[in-house]
Recover the amino acids of this structure.
């Protein structure tokens, strides 16, 4: 397993195990992959993205006393955001290209300067569609280091390579809130969301970042997305890992995610 860059003790509010409810579900559905009961610790912190409000004292006390994640404004599954909504809820119509690492994906992405000065310009309005540079899909094996849930119902996944591999680098990948059921991307986005929530059960992340010890191996596929709304100011990511997140590009949306993939995945 990949080692974890641990958050500082001052940001840790609770530590829980991933969890006995997964064992119960596996007994009900034995055809599913065996759960990793007790194999992962969830380190629940007060770390949030720079653009988000800090946890309230009440939220902090709830995490410390119950171990439960901090609730977000909405607990539904539908996407409730507006910025580049059309692009965020669409999947590029191209075959997925396989990559060996997060670093290898990042190496193929246009620079922030090029995208910020893109012609035609990229709007953060709700009708902003994918531009040519976003019309692609990538697939790779990596590790899930941390995750949180945003008020728009997206799950922010901080994904990186094994720290044993050398360079420490992470990027954001988002399991999206859902579009209307008649949307062309609905089935894939719902499947990805079901996979994510099914793995974590009642330990899905909340308004602040959870870290996973050890990081969880995943096989993930999705479309690159340039988050123009973060072209100025501090970019997203938990403070512990943010210095090693070199781009505001994301994989958004995640079209599929598999946890603990086997060697033939």
């Amino acid at each position: 397993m990949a080692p974890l860059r641990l958050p500082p003790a001052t940001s840790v509010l609770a530590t829980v195990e991933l969890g006995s409810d997964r064992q119960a579900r596996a007994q009900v559905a034995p055809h599913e992959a065996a759960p990793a009961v007790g194999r992962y610790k969830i380190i629940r912190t007060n770390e949030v993205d720079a653009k988000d409000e800090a946890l309230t004292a009440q939220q902090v006390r709830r995490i410390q006393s119950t171990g439960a994640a901090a609730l977000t404004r909405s607990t539904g599954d539908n996407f409730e955001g507006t910025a580049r909504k059309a692009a965020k809820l669409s999947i590029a119509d191209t075959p997925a290209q396989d990559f060996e690492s997060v670093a290898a994906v990042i190496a193929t992405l246009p620079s922030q300067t090029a995208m910020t000065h893109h012609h035609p310009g990229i709007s953060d309005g709700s009708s902003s569609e994918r531009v040519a540079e976003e019309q692609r899909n990538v697939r790779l094996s990596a590790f899930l280091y941390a995750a949180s849930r945003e008020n728009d119902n997206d799950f922010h996944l901080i994904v990186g390579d094994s720290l044993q591999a050398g360079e420490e680098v992470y990027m954001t990948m988002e399991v999206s809130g859902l579009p209307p059921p008649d949307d062309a991307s609905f089935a894939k986005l719902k499947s990805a969301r079901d996979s994510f929530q099914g793995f974590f059960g009642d330990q899905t992340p909340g308004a602040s970042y959870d870290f996973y010890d050890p990081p969880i191996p995943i096989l993930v596929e999705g479309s690159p997305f340039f988050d123009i709304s973060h072209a100025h100011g501090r970019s997203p990511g938990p403070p512990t890992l943010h210095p090693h997140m070199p781009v505001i590009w994301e994989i958004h949306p995640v079209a599929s995610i598999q946890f603990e993939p086997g060697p033939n995945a």
User: Anything to note?
Assistant: The helical segments are 20-28, 57-66, 85-88, 102-107, 112-116, 186-200. Residues 186-200 form the longest helix (15 residues). Confidence is low (pLDDT under 50) at residues 23-35. The chain has one domain: 9-259.
